[in-house]
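Methods: example folding runs. The two proteins below were folded one after another, and each record is reproduced exactly as written to the output file, sequence line first and structure-token line second.
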Amino acid sequence: MRNNSPKKLIEIDTVNLYRTQVGAEGIASEELATLKSELERVHQSLTVKSSGGLDAEFACLNLHDHMSASLPDMESMAEAIRRFEEVAVIGIGGSSLGAKAVHQALAAIGATTSSPALHFLENVNPYPLRKLMQRSAEKVAVICISKSGGTVETAVQYLILRNWLEQNLGKSRARRHQWLITDPERGWLREIALREKIPSLPVPPRVGGRYSVLSAVGLLPLAVAGVDIQALLAGAAADAGRCLADDPKKNPALEIAALFYLLDIKKNKRVSIMMPYADPLQLFVDWYRQLWAESLGKRMETRSGKPPAGTLPVRAMGAVDQHSQLQMYLESRLDKIFTFLAFDAWEQDLPIPLSDDDRKFFPYLEGKKMRDVIEAELQATREVVTGAGHPNMTLRLPSLTAHVLGQLIDLYQRVTVYAGLLYGINPLDQPAVERVKKLAIKLLSGGKGP
């Protein structure tokens, strides 16, 4: 589905992160200025390490340029998958969250196709798997996604679904219901693809799972759902284009990373709350949580005696969590940073009808629509949060489109990498996660695994 309307950029308002707005809990312009040489250094590092195409260390930041050549093959593969009624997208974490978030957002406004239905199978959970297996195998396709090719949660679900397809269709026909996305050269899934001649797409080797939504990992399932994946990449390119300077006043990703870093190490802000005032963005926050937590939650071995890097990412939904979490946020410790997400334009809205009896109780709703209410809720929360001394920022999305979501994805990937470089840690690895994976395998092996 193509959207030819003018492509506006996200409005990024960071003013409430500064001392001028929130007092001593915010960052003074002078404090940001002291980072000048450090910001120039990390920007240069990001620039160098993201050049060189898909072989670059930060290849995830140039996918918007290098995936375009793969789009015709991807669209052709998506067309073949669309002949099925149900598509199981098997993956976990970065192999699922990005595509799931974009799909949820655009499905909410009707910018995806209703058929086939996408089923994101992530956790080791028999209930959704059993439900899917109640369908006719003739109507079900499987997209299995694992960069390593051996993620155990993904492997378990793929093995069960593959066996179900083979039992119902025979091995030869079952192959025509399967597509794999994995490492281009090695791993269990790559061996299956080669041995069984199952159609497959590569994950660029230098692109980690949580940074992979703009690769085939996210693009193929989204193309199946009818998402304009070319616009998604164009949106990422548009954001990259506004982040070229080493001056935080001219590079929003660099400014956000610098401010969040300073708020952590100088103001002890340990919790980063993202609060969208739009239900379609709920899963985007889940994608952000993994990106931020897994990239930045690291021990800083080179900084003896310093606390670990990173802030704890938390999702809150406006206006729902004004009635659950906001009391704690406003009157507990001043250890929080807020990011509000809001729409400038709602593709769908409803007027609020009032009878004469209703008007007596709700005179302030006269002539209002639903978007007026959610906007008032946002402004009220933002004002009270600021008044309580909590640093906060607001991202206003001009609309809800693939292009705008591409901007958001690129923005937060850049912010995360910049922040990692400022902390002096590797934003691409996840050593603690790897330890858990190895221990789980050891336990499954009766204590004899790695």
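Second run, written to the same file directly after the first:
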Amino acid sequence: MDPRIVDRLRCPVCAEPLAEATAGTARALRCPRRHSFDVARQGYVNLLTGRAPHVGDSAEMVTARADFLAAGHYDTVSTALADAARDAADRAGAAGAALGAYPLVVDAGAGTGWHLAAVLAALPDAVGLALDVSKPALRRAAQAHPRVAAALADTWQRLPLADASTAVLLNVFAPRNGAEFRRVLHPAGALLVVTPTGAHLAELVDVLGLLRVDPAKADRVAGSLAAHFDEVAESVLRARLELTRPEVATLVGMGPSAWHTDPAALAVRIATLPEPVGVTLAVRLTVHRPR
């Protein structure tokens, strides 16, 4: 793994620094207390301690997400994140932040690493770490960009990172651990959070029986972070998607509704949609500074 990233990692058992060790063809990260964590042949390291409370997205969901994102449908989100991350990095640099020669961008709940890769493309001096609990997702994330490393980690627990080690932290449609986000983020860094608005995919919710966005979503996000962060900017990103029926099926299959819809019934409903299917992308991007 990239030593610039390993240098920021910490043992999830004792919080000591980690270093890469090899034995034959096997690779692992080990701390001075001899806790050892295997690096999978697909490139990600398992930094879980014990069994995760859930397995995350399935292989089918990850494939659907990879296909949908590769088609460019969510490029509006990736571009906005890249712009916000560039602004955050510039601000940290102007403040003389001790973020090292290679600022670290962490994506907590990274999925396939698509958005993280877009941010790194905009920050040529940065390195990135994708954290997720889904092994199928991490197999892709580890290959998402030459400056990305990936780790299996439960973001509800202590993150396997040093204090104040992170310049930019991404959180896109993923759970938020305010206390840990604050611990690992440098005081001059920024947390970028993307959540759906009530208008997101609204054209599909009723006709396909999808999960609805909680009307109190924005308030809940703010409440989960308020003790540790100040929200300094907010923008609503909107785009009109023109999708084929197979793309609609892929869109549903990559999100949380995939766990709650009957595939056969869903296919029948999608078959009745006129093509192209007009769908609204509407998400909220908020920028948070550590308190």
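Comment on the second run: The chain has a mean pLDDT of 92.
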